[in-house]
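Reply to dn_fold:

You asked what the input looked like. This is it:
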Amino acid sequence: MEAVYRWRFEGAARAWLTLETRPLGEWDFPLPRLGLRMAVPKALEQITWFGGGPGEAYADTRA
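and this is what came back:
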């Protein structure tokens, strides 16, 4: 599996992370679900998360 993490920073206040993955070689079965886990220092006072959660948030979590 190849993973490319792209960080983009806007000044000192914003950081954006984009993750792209793709299989390498032959896959004769469906790809597993992939996720991202990250933590931030407690000292940060204001954080906005644009994904689901808290916890695992697969596309069918709310089904």
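The chain is about 0% helix and 30% strand.
Hope that clears it up.
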